[in-house]
Amino acid sequence: MKKLILLALTGALLSTTQAQIKFGVKAGVNLATLTGDISNAKMLTGFNAGGLVEVNLGKMFAVQPEVLYSSQGAKSSFEGQDFNMNLGYLNVPVLFKYKHPSGFFAATGPQIGFLLSAQEKAGSDHVDIKSSFKSTDFSWAFGVGYMLKPINVGVEARFNQGLSNIASNSDQQTTGTGHNQVIQVGLVYMFGGL
Predict the structure, then answer these.
(1) CA–CA dist 112, 109 (Å, integer)
(2) CA–CA separation, 165 vs 159, rounded Å?
(3) CATH topology (fold) of 21-193
(4) What pLDDT sits at residue 172?
(5) What is the pLDDT of residues 80-96, one digit of tens each?
(6) Using alpha carbons only, what angle is made at residue 41 by residues 113 and 187, rounded to the nearest 5 degrees?
(7) Structural domain boundaries of the chain?
């Protein structure tokens, strides 16, 4: 009898644990720009993709860490020449999430980004400009979305506001500021759990 009760408690614990942690993947479109001393900065279209873990804190709240590749940067022009600054980041947001029973959700939290690549493209010319930017970026994320629970697919819109100056100013002859701003729209698919 004790073994049966222990087995039942273990099964209940495992099923509760499975409902507590879920995994997911996401991908979408970025509309990115840089604010600060970059003149005439305009939105640059890119993409984001990665994975997430949703750790439930009751029925309506969760913590959601993610790992995402994000193509960011800006379009600009100088002396009549148009160019793109393409910045590739590995972003790690940790979001506090409110989940309404209807499927709507809202999330906010800090994000750290690690610069993987930085290129300036003008016509067919490509120049590595990674040394012009700091290797990390700190930002704050705000997001809303809707999950279709029967099929575990959702849509999400997010705004990431850069909090740190990403201009490196490492050569001490240049000074300037730059902050990332990114609007993200994409799809989320949740599956399984522990």
Answers:
(1) 10
(2) 18
(3) Porin (2.40.160)
(4) 46
(5) 778 899 999 999 999 99
(6) 50
(7) 21-193
